[in-house]
Design a protein that fits this description.
Length: about 375
């Protein structure tokens, strides 16, 4: 169950993504790492709590950079006002800045030869996202994108159940995500955040793709975008190449709390989750044994995400989400905006073949850490 405020290893974090995860995540591949967190705002706090929940063999060392002197330096972080100085000394760069700055910072980290983890959405256009991916490839550094919903327990549980094959093929998928309008002004500026489709709905677009594969057509509506202070809602219908249909609603109008829900109707059963329920997920098929979970319940999704992506970035280990997935989700989110603007169905721009992410199974992930 998500909650508004939670204690994460002693530090108070207030945000929808802050949850009371009690147990540390044990990893053996993350040792003595110097992590450079760029952007010390809201999501950086969740990342730092996630990094700290990783029970690594050696303590992690945190370095931080922010362009604003108003951004407080989190405890335990050594601040560098000069980005180049930070890039010179860290092993891994964790980009937690507003979306409009992602590509420039990814390229700067790559030029310094440092592997990069970047928050979603990767960029504001497919062309820029492709440019960032190619820039990192040319520099020989790894680029990973944090699409953290792939690490939230109910979604992980549903995917593990789905991966058994017992539920058959996905047919009609529904996703819901609603929270308050973020307070930072740049979120309300579509030119800088991408708006609700790129910032919020992208989580469920990624889920829809993870369950049902590539999206070939998008029809969408957006409301509440035409005045200051208005709280947008979005509705999208995605048609997958398989013929499955996804129905996604996203809203920034919820006045209190944050909630998510899904209903994955497959040919042999239905998987359901709703944060308003006491039970986080309902399995329709109690006869089905699940594949191994990469993390035990109670672990922080951010810790799990960061440990897995750090392993991928530093050692080439498998991760459940790749840059191609991030570009594909962005492309569908941009199609949502275009469809809402034109009133027409839109075909999302395809991800270049060389950037498509490989399929990673739960067996591939077992023993990653
Ligand atoms: N995964 C999730 O669930 C989730 C949740 C919230 C935000 N996000 C994403 O995280 C990113 C940051 O969001 P936030 O809520 O932390 O924003 P924020 O505004 O709270 O914090 C961003 C910080 O970056 C700093 N900054 C801006 N430009 C910079 C630059 N060029 N170099 C260094 N610092 C810079 C700002 O001064 C600010 O302190 C966004 O892309 C957002 O979409 C993801």
């Amino acid at each position: 169950m998500l909650c508004d405020s939670a204690k994460v290893k002693g530090s108070r974090v207030t945000a929808w993504w802050a949850v009371p995860w009690a147990r540390p995540l044990l990893v053996d591949n993350v040792v003595a790492m110097r992590i450079g967190v760029v952007g010390l705002g809201g999501i950086a706090r969740a990342h730092l709590a996630g990094w700290r929940a990783i029970d690594s063999a050696e303590p992690l060392e945190f370095h931080g950079h922010d362009v604003s002197s108003e951004a407080a330096t989190p405890e335990g972080v050594t601040r560098h006002d000069d980005l180049a100085e930070l890039l010179g000394i860290v092993d891994l760069v964790d980009i937690c800045t507003p979306t409009f700055s992602h590509v420039e910072l990814i390229k700067a980290a790559a030029d310094a030869g440092k592997p990069v983890l970047c928050e979603k959405p990767l960029a504001l256009t497919v062309a820029e996202a492709v440019e960032a991916a190619r820039h990192c490839a040319a520099a020989g550094v790894s680029l990973q994108v944090g699409q953290v919903v792939r690490y939230f327990p109910a979604y992980v549980a549903a995917h593990r159940a789905f991966a058994t094959g017992a539920y058959g093929e996905p047919a009609v998928l529904r996703f819901r995500r609603a929270g308050g309008m973020p307070r930072q002004p740049w979120f309300a500026d579509e030119e800088r955040s991408g708006g609700i489709a790129l910032d919020l709905m992208i989580h469920d677009i990624d889920q829809a793709r993870w369950f049902a594969g590539d999206v070939v057509r998008v029809h969408a509506h957006l409301k509440g975008l035409d005045g200051p202070g208005l709280r947008p809602h979005a509705l999208a219908i995605l048609t997958h190449a398989s013929g499955a249909i996804s129905h996604i609603t996203s809203s920034w109008a919820l006045q209190s709390g944050f909630g998510t829900a899904f209903e994955i109707a497959c040919t042999q059963g239905i998987l359901e989750h709703d944060t308003r329920d006491v039970a986080p997920i309902r399995f329709d098929r109690s006869d089905v044994a699940l594949p191994p979970a990469p993390a035990a319940p109670g672990q922080s999704p951010f810790a799990e995400e960061l440990a897995e992506l750090a392993g991928a970035a530093l050692e080439g280990r498998p991760a459940r989400v790749g840059v191609g997935d991030a570009i594909a989700a962005l492309s569908v989110a941009l199609a949502v905006r275009e469809s809402a603007r034109t009133g027409r169905a839109v075909v999302p721009e395809a991800v270049p073949d060389d950037l498509r992410s490989p399929t990673v199974s739960w067996d591939d992930l077992a023993g990653v850490r």
